[in-house]
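Please, structure for the following, as tokens.
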Amino acid sequence: MDAAATDQPKVNLYDLNRQELGDFVARLGEARYRAKQIWTWMYTQRVDRFQAMTNLPRATIAKLKATATLGSLGLVAMQQSRDGAEKRIFRLRDGQLIESVLMPYDDARMTACISSQAGCAMGCVFCATGQMGFGRNLTAGEIFEQTMVFARELAARGERLSNVVFMGMGEPFHNYDASLEAVRQLMTRLRVGARHITVSTVGLAPQIRRFADEDLQVNLAVSLHQTDDARRSALMPVNRRWAIDELMNACHYYVEQTNRRITFEWAAIAGENDTADEAHRLGRLLSGLLCHVNIIPLNPTGNYGGVPAQKATIKSFSRILSGYGVGSTVRVRRGIDIEAGCGQLITVVTRRSPIDSRGLRQGDASA
């Protein structure tokens, strides 16, 4: 039966690899070489509608429109920070909402911070996404498409997407297969270099070991935030499953297998983990490991009362770490005024007056 005559849901072409796209085109009754043409339009020309594929016959375009989509993310709203960060809220086909952020830097980097899940099951108490709970995993195509949206917009402005970080909503290693497939799509379809891609995890030790064996040059970031099991478990419930010793064993395995540096993320919370004693404990924990600490002054979220550490305290903290041979930097905070900073992403359905109260500009909500 012709695929156009069925009642099957439309296929998101971003979910298909080259072979699968060829098979799909063949089921439409088209020659397989059409798949190569479509692929070029999607990933070289980066068009967002079938009508733009000008070397395809009208009949082929009609079949594609009847059976497929070029993506499945509906833009609900967008917002721009005073510092230039841009946030997008997308609606998925089933109504779930996710957020993605584009961050410009003075050295001309354009970094997309993308989501791997709608919500998050990890429950980190200082993180807005963790506070909202878990919706579902994203498909590889849904993860990848967030970067395609930004890449397309940047190309229209004469710019290019240079970096991608899996630090948006969700835990990438809780959605391991789709996240890794999206990483590979970034490298092959958008030509983002592996060393310009970072995957962040709250510390799923088995997946860190698995990631070490992937033979990828992708960067790994691990959210640590405490050196004591009881205090880390209170902050990050995942620690009750994989305690610090087990996590660090996995991190050492990663470095041994890859010879790549790990970044440890440290949300600096005043009076909680910014003391000199804590800096010494962290220095001892990481001493001798090929790593770097990314200190992030805590970003405010609605249901957590902690406040960011002071600049002078962070400077002292960093100086103590250096005495153990552990390098550190303080992350430049981006998008705080539009709740686009680290740990601030939360979909608008969980908030009162979801659009207007936040000053968001309405986008095209069509899928």
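Residues 1-5, 337-341, 348-367 have pLDDT under 50 and may be disordered. The longest strand covers residues 97-104.
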